[in-house]
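Quick question, first post here. What does this chain look like in 3D?
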Amino acid sequence: MKGTTGVCIALMATLALLVGCQEKSDYLELGGALDRAALQDGAVGFEALRKASEGDELVLTGTIGKVCPAGCWFYLQGDSDMVYVDVLGDYEVPQMASGRESWVRGKVSGDGGARILQGVRVLVAPPR
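> Answer (accepted):
Ran it through. Tokens below.
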């Protein structure tokens, strides 16, 4: 009995150590499960948005600007560009996402200056 109790205590201590050492993700994943690395690696710049056709799907990266009070749209800002992102799906973008780096997977809609991105997945980085 003593040997079994000691083994149980050792296993519990090891498990607690492992759980405590795991890296906690402060990334906010919106729009369902996503592969963070694939999303980040597949990101393109705003130049690709200008060249995209209606219905093209792409991943843009930038900083979230103004967010709708209800969380149903936001602006994604690049170095010198900005695009309106309409949230598609059963999720809302929280106000606290404003000013944070993010990656948005969506479909291109509209032409020229009226071009928008219909966002289906959003990954928001932790605050800096």
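Residues 26-124 form a domain with the OB fold (Dihydrolipoamide Acetyltransferase, E2P) fold (CATH 2.40.50.200).
The chain has one domain: 26-124.
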